[in-house]
Amino acid sequence: xxxxxxxxxxxxxxxxxxxxxxxxxxxxxxxxxxxxxxxxxxxxxxxxxxxxxxxxxxxxxxxxxxxxxxxxxxxxxxxxxxxxxxxxxxxxxxxxxxxxxxxxxxxxxxxxxxxxxxxxxxxxxxxxxxxxxxxxxxxxxxxxxxxxxxxxxxxxxxxxxxxxxxxxxxxxxxxxxxxxxxxxxxxxxxxxxxxxxxxxxxxxxxxxxxxxxxxxxxxxxxxxxxxxxxxxxxxxxxxxxxxxxxxxxxxxxxxxxxxxxxxxxxxxxxxxxxxxxxxxxxxxxxxxxxxxxxxxxxxxxxxxxxxxxxxxxxxxxxxxxxxxxxxxxxxxxxxxxxxxxxxxxxxxxxxxxxxxxxxxxxxxxxxxxxxxxxxxxxxxxxxxxxxxxxxxxxxxxxxxxxxxxxxxxxxxxxxxxxxxxxxxxxxxxxxxxxxxxxxxxxxxxxxxxxxxxxxxxxxxxxxxxxxxxxxxxxxxxxxxxxxxxxxxxxxxxxxxxxxxxxxxxxxxxxxxxxxxxxxxxxxxxxxxxxxxxxxxxxxxxxxxxxxxxxxxxxxxxxxxxxxxxxxxxxxxxxxxxxxxxxxxxxxxxxxxxxxxxxxxxxxxxxxxxxxxxxxxxxxxxxxxxxxxxxxxxxxxxxxxxxxxxxxxxxxxxxxxxxxxxxxxxxxxxxxxxxxxxxxxxxxxxxxxxxxxxxxxxxxxxxxxxxxxxxxxxxxxxxxxxxxxxxxxxxxxxxxxxx
Length: 738
Description:
The chain is an alpha+beta fold. The protein has 21 helices and 22 strands.
């Protein structure tokens, strides 16, 4: 009989009910899980889970029952948003409040009392991805309600429902109109009147009534703090300077004796160590697990660096709220520079701790969150330490470490003189890899904990670490491209092992992807020693996916879509930024978030009286991880070199210059299609491919061969890196890394 029962149980499990594919994906992302984590738990391949979420395949027993159990538990934690009727302009009755998607800003709640005025012509925000509406410009704001009344929508004395906490979106731009009214411009065109007369009162109003903030990106994480952006008029109203003095700018904050700082202190508010600066964080210690914290952004104090945010600081309040709101909904609420936000995004997706299972007394405790970097910093290996690190304090003062002492994984900066054959061609065509460093992080296995020193190790391409190995025997004239050995002109290719493209001359320290590539090219590697990390994982996968999705969604809003035909893609990229300059700012900020976040993994001292051999502030972070940065840069450089080898083997064309993620080739025509081999619309397998996705390439710029030769002759530099200037032909000393 028990066998019959088991058979019945198996039959029921084989038809375990599952939500629709879109809901499966929503539930996984709501809990901050990656496809890889789900696949590992169910002991299936990553592609299998992706197929379930895309609706291409359905799980079978025994995995189906376990998968259904997972989704059922997640559905209890993250119920789906209720359907809501969207009112038209002439609608007489307000719509019900829609609970926000866990990774999107909430739709503003509509109270029973008269709602906050909606700017005419500006649609309400939609949680689903799609074109972002541009707010209409108005000469003066229309009248607004006395204050945000979302709290009144709840019954008297009842706490706010979780879905209504952030009903008015993640942030607001605070401004003062011509009549002296203080207004908060939220996302979606919503405007609220602000009654606060001082900065302490503004903070209280934000936390108690404004309904601003953003849900956490991962189950064990915390919700994003509300962000207030203060315009010049708001600064004047609240007694703050319109701009920082030279001394304040160097200090990065106003003086502790400023009257506004004193007001905050008297009201019981605290500031973080960075003080009241362009990105001020005002808080009270958490009580009962409830945070009381508000982030301020002050554009006129250079909070929005024009190198990354363009002209955002000069936008009118509604337009600025739109730009920052799109970035917040697709990346996260800004909490500092794009670099700071990029680093914080890593932590938000992999919080260092989580709540344990209840103990014997039913109490939960904080415990390490698997897959995170933990709560405590770890020392890097000596070879990974930058100059001046405390690990190197015993070195002679003026000692210069060579490649046998220092890991030097950096992006390409290489060029060579053109051959006679290349000089007969007419044009130099630059192609640029989209989000190259994000693509390098995708699927990369990195160390999570401290390194282990090993003598004479056997190289393992799956083990993250730093390896001392001699790669000088690798000859680019004969390498493997895939499974085939190919003959190349090695003198026309940069070495994959050094940023300057020079062939190594002896043992040097390399990250795992670099050494693995030497094996891929068909050569034996014998490391002398290594610092390896046995505790490892794909820490950056969720980070990559979040930034990739933000980039692709915003480019799609600008008319550039994935999977476009090559010619259509090039046409769509022509003038893409002019179609909506505000969304173009978001694209720039997303790119800067990638590069800046990775750069922060090896942040150097920033003044503060630091001396070589002493620790600096960044070393106290668990996210100070130069080994992870090195691994990403290594893999990015190797990815680029692999494509150049495939391209040379197939076409006989070699790069003239390479800078970071840009490669320049000589060609007869002006288009990338005159360089890249497409046959029947299909690119060279494993080579360069035109497209908007990370890792694919776009047109960077075209100049004439005569221009290149004239520039090099003018500066008497036959190996001047033309990739630095290929975009518009203007020769300067500025390198923006694009």
